Amino acid sequence: MRIILAAVAAAFVFPAASAPAKQPQRPLVAQYDVQRVTGSCEAGLKRARDEIKAMEGRRGGAGLYREWNKLQIDIEDVFNPIYLIGNVHPDKAVRDATEPCQQKFSTLSTELFQNEKLFKRVQDLKPANDRERKLKKDLIEGFEDSGVALPADKRKRAKEIFDKLEELRQAYDRNVRDDPTRVKFTPAEMAGMSEAYLKAHEGTRDAEGNYVLTLKYPSYVPFLTNAKSGEARRRYYLAKLNEGGAQNLDLLYEIFKLRQELAGLYGLKSFAEYSLRRKMVGSPQTVNKFLDDVKSAVTELEKKDLEELRAVKAKELGTPLAETKLERWDVSYYQEKVRRERFDIDQEKLRKYFPTDKSIDYTMLVAQTLYGVRFQERKVPTWHPDVRYFDVLDGKTGKFISGFYLDLYPREGKYNHAAAFPIRGVSRLTKRTPLSALVTNFNREGLDHGELETMMHEFGHVMHGVLSEADYNAQAGTSVKVDFVEAPSQMFEEWARRKDSLQLFEKVCPQCPHLTDDEIARLDAARKYGQGIRYARQWLYAKFDMELSTDPRPPLAVWKQLESATPLGHVEGTIFPASFSHIASNYAAGYYGYMWSEVIALDMLSQFKGRMLDPEVGARYRREILSQGGQREEMEDVRKFLGRDPSSEAFFAEITGRR
Ligand SMILES: [Zn+2]
Q1: Whether the Cβ atoms of residue 143 and residue 122 lie closer than 8 Å to each other
Q2: What spacing in Å lies between the alpha carbon of 602 and ligand 1's midpoint?
């Protein structure tokens, strides 16, 4: 779903000492306990502050590129693993211990970018090439955005705001992550749920035999899609749409008010302006125009899609159409019913086609084929027995390039979406190798097709991180503009959809049932079915984000107003903005970026010209996009790969079903 972008990018162990000399130096995430979190955090902060002090003592730009790179790496080496561990460690005490540390590093980052002496030195940098020129520009903008050029009182206030925003974001995320809500269902209310689902939730049953379910995706999503009882779906929907609690509405409002104040310190009208001037789009006008185009493309489609579902509901319940109302908790259920009937696709049955381990093998085989690399699993110590680790090696020479972890299954207190976490960013100049983690909440037995797409998506982010060849750490891998960062991951989803790539599944699992040509065509038709609903929803999220980023008002009121204007309306008693984590964090004034990135992703896809496993195009893509990270303007990366200016034609064809 998304990538975690750490603003400053840890403790690593190099097992090299005990390993034979020819083994690659393989950096890994250390084994953390509370003490180690606190200890490495304090030591890391002290070290960074000492380095900053030494950097302040020097004059002029000479040497600063390297000094900056070292500082950034030293910060990343402490912060990134702690940030990851805060999201995945099985021990709540360890997760909790990371929070004050995250806060302190956020403060350090603000101080660093408000440091006048360093700003002066950055201004004096003499770039030796385009990559250094881009880094200088990025650094200057980073300093300016942190308020270094502001008068002292405003700069002080900017720092207070950044600190407070980090504190509020943490509280918001904690309220979502640790939401204790459970929803109880009788065995009769489980009608429609698969054997596998029932088996997986056997452990949740209480003394009366009721299923007691959490709000986590692997429980919630299949239930809304399959449970026959409309009343049971309604209860679960209401609970899920209260996740995070009313407290988060207040936190979110405060967050947006502070952002508005921040923009004001710069003499800018809104946070949207403050944020978007640093993105690919450049201004709120471009975003608003794009969102208007999306809206006009999908408005009628959405109505048509929903009318159709309403008819299906009337038929199923045997109620007159005029008296049948389609509810929000009906949408996934009836969509699934249509998908099954019209396209004869049963997502639950697809889990047999895509066993989880084999799906990983498949995803990796696709990437190995395209990018000329090899993945080698290694037994290494990790934070949980479920977690696996792989080396990334050059396909020809076997040379060690980088590594990644896979943490695939749900557990109590774990990050509850799917995301890629950069742990180490590359720096070619210091021979530093990248390391990332892919974190999901998959079913152990198998994936449905949507989850296979999620797997490919997050793996697309991981490849962007671990195949990066940027000179400087600040520009490594996914350190790109937020409205571009989803393009490589969205593009990679397509390899879950096309016949010539899916044929590789036979190689990784000869004994699995395989999709026939007809099934692949039907899956694709099923996916495109309901695009009107899907993109209308994406539009709504993006619009809501832009509204708050332009003119902060109480979030629930704004949400109600926007949602009420949609065909299905607003469900009284739901508080969606309480769990919209994206906009509490750095996706604010950036949610549109998912669709914007998709414009780029679909356009880039055209280069494969239907030959999805063409290693030549794969190599060009690796060179022009994946390896570049942020060391070139994203628009230039895309132009170099495409050989022309990007176009939104493929995107609008996709969302209106004309592709
Ligand atoms: Zn993503």
Answers
A1: yes
A2: 15
User: CB of 13 within 8 A of CB of 30?
Assistant: yes
Q: Answer for the pair 427, 73: CB distance below 8 angstroms, yes or no.
A: yes
Separation of CA 486 and ligand 1 centre (Å)? 5
Q: pTM for the full model?
A: 0.85
Residues in the chain: 659
Q: What is the pLDDT of residue 12?
A: 39
Q: Look at strands 419-424 and 2-3 and give their pairing.
A: parallel
Q: Which two tokens stand for residue 30?
A: 């250390």
Token representation of residue 602 = 């679909």
| In 270-386, alpha helices (H) | 271-276, 284-317, 331-342, 347-350, 356-371
Report the amino acid identity of residue 353.
Answer: Y
Tens-place pLDDT, residues 416-430: 889 999 999 999 999
Q: Running DSSP on this structure, what letter comes out for residue 576?
A: G
Please give the distance, rounded to the nearest whole angstrom, from the Cα atom of residue 452 to the centre of ligand 1: 14
Helices 130-146, 116-123: crossing angle, 10 deg rounding: 150
In sequence order, which residues have a C-beta less than 8 Å from that of residue 152 and are 6 or more positions away?
none
Distance 654 CA to ligand 1 centre (A): 19
Q: What CA–CA distances, in Å, run from 236 to 3, 328, 329?
A: 27, 12, 9
Written as six digits, the tokens of 246 are 């009313």
